[in-house]
């Protein structure tokens, strides 16, 4: 750790179905002790499903934490020790009712590193075919088909404000993939 600070053993403050919260103390060489609450998350995937006509499949999904619908690319939480690609393949079937045979990793993202250890894994999914799978019971969404220009306009207008979706989309653009 930078500056020779030492971390004490974390104390679990909360443990839930998809995350836990730990309280951790860090001792600095100056003698100062700082306490931090850290959200522990198993990680997630974010998928850009691109159809043969180059349009993308997004979701208009109700997010309980926000109390409203938002526009976003499909995503999902990793199960314990689940490889990210396996999670992405499951989530694309649950959320946009397709499978893909061409998967391109888009790297890892840290959505909230100031208080959360979650790592999100981005993927571009191509060569799609219909492959419906039952969605999770707590998910309420509809599939939205958009061109690249429509996605860019949605980002600029604020219609698409989901950071993980913007990050993977922009990474795919910078890599010259879309």
Description of the structure:
By secondary structure, the protein is of the alpha+beta class. Helix content is 20%, strand content 42%. It folds into 2 domains: 2-40; 44-174, Alpha-Beta Complex (Nucleoside Triphosphate Pyrophosphohydrolase), CATH 3.90.79.10. Strands 1, 2, 3 and 4 form a 4-stranded antiparallel β-sheet that branches. The chain has a 4-stranded mixed β-sheet with strand order 8-5-10-9, sandwiched between helices. It has a 3-stranded antiparallel β-sheet with strand order 7-6-11. The model has no long low-confidence stretch (mean pLDDT 93).
Descriptive keywords:
single chain; 178 residues; Nucleoside Triphosphate Pyrophosphohydrolase; four-stranded mixed sheet; 11 strands
Sequence-ordered SSE layout with sheet pairings:
Elements: E1 6-7, E2 11-15, E3 20-27, E4 33-40, E5 44-49, E6 56-63, E7 68-72, E8 75-77, H1 84-96, E9 98-109, E10 120-130, E11 141-146, H2 148-157, H3 163-174
Parallel strand pairs: 5-10
Antiparallel strand pairs: 1-3, 2-3, 3-4, 5-8, 6-7, 6-11, 9-10
């Amino acid at each position: 750790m930078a500056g020779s600070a030492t971390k004490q053993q974390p104390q679990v403050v909360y443990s839930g179905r998809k995350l836990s919260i730990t309280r951790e103390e860090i001792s600095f060489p100056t003698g100062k002790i700082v306490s931090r609450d850290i959200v522990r998350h198993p990680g997630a995937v974010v998928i850009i499903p691109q159809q043969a006509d180059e349009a993308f499949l997004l979701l208009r999904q109700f997010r309980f934490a926000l109390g409203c619908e938002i526009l976003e690319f499909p995503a999902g939480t990793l199960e314990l020790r689940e490889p990210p690609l396996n999670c992405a393949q499951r989530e694309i079937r649950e959320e946009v009712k397709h499978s893909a045979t061409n998967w391109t990793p888009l790297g890892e993202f840290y959505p909230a590193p100031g208080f959360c250890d979650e790592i999100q894994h981005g993927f571009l999914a191509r060569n799609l075919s219909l492959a419906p799978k039952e969605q999770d019971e707590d998910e309420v969404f509809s599939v939205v088909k958009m061109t690249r220009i429509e996605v860019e306009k949605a980002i600029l207008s604020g219609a698409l404000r989901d950071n993980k979706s913007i990050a993977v989309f922009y990474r795919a653009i910078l890599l010259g993939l879309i």
